[in-house]
Amino acid sequence: MKLLRFELDGRAHNGVVEDDAVIDERTKKEYPLDEIEFLPPVNPPKIICMGFNYPKHRKEMDDIATSKPTLTLKSPTSVIGHKQKIILPEIPSGVEHEAELGVVIKKPGYNIENPLEHILGYTIVNDVTARDLEREMIQWSASKSFPTFCPTGPWIETDINPGNLNIKCTVNGELRQNCGTKEMTHSPEECVSFASKFMKLQTGDLIATGTPPGVGILVSGDVVEIGIEKIGVLRNRVA
Questions:
Q1: What's the chain's Rg over C-alpha atoms?
Q2: Taking the chain, what is the end-to-end CA distance rounded to the nearest angstrom?
Q3: Could you tell me if 52 and 116 lie in one domain?
Q4: How many domains does the chain divide into?
Q5: If pLDDT is split at 50, 70 and 90, which confidence band does 136 have?
């Protein structure tokens, strides 16, 4: 099932995607996907980013990479939806894309031993990062928390096995990232358990499970498309 949030007449609506349309959860009316305004599929209380969860990405970021996967918090105010614009900050900061599988939490928990019971579903995340700031600071939240730095969507897919999904990222049609989730050090379920060792997870929390190799610079006018097998495509223009 694909769970979608969209805006209609200035109000947020929840719906379920069927073919090329969304069925409004409350009214049961059907709206074509190409006629709606997408909202982020979740408004997360917190965003938890797994760092260096793909060995090849750890290698390409060797100057700052930790020896093991790590956690960084990203501001919830950075979240935008499918087709919304990524706004580059005024300060020059080497902004880069990071294609990631996102896990949406359904059931709160701390020290979680049975992560599947706590997962609502999976979505696509672009963990946009100001790389120059990341290299300057010991703590990386500032480099990831600018407004619009967390495109998410287009929906939440509830009925997939995330263990072997292909992730692709293109910028202006050029392939930048192409990898499978099977190459993660920690599986998506393990990411949930790992994060819950250090903080209580809440309903709606979003865990970005790390990016594969191939991250690269974004400039104004770029169009970023991230596709994850069995979920869909998240597209955003850079301004």
A1: 17
A2: 32
A3: yes
A4: 2
A5: confident
* Residue 5 shares a structural domain with residue 82: no
- Overall average pLDDT of the 95-99 stretch: 98
Instruction: Spell 93-103 as b/e; 16+ CB within 10 A means b.
Output: bebbbbbbbbb
Q: Please, is 177 exposed, middle or buried when counting C-beta atoms within 10 Å of its C-beta (0-12, 13-18, 19+)? A: buried
Q: Encoding tokens for residue 70? A: 């790590």
- Contact, 36 vs 23, CB < 8 A? no
Rounded Cα distance, 228 and 167, in Å: 5
- Going by C-alpha positions, the residue among 118, 114, 117, 119 that lies closest to residue 103 is 119
Other beta carbons less than 10 A from residue 163's beta carbon: 12
**Residue 18 CB neighbour total at 10 angstroms:** 12
Q: What is the pLDDT of residue 52?
A: 85
Residue 168 is encoded by which pair of tokens?
A: 């692709």
Domain of residue 155 covers 39-236
In CATH, what number is assigned to the domain containing residue 27?
Answer: 2.30.30.370
Residues 103 and 31 in one domain: no
Do 109 and 174 fall within a single domain? yes
Same domain, 120 and 8: no
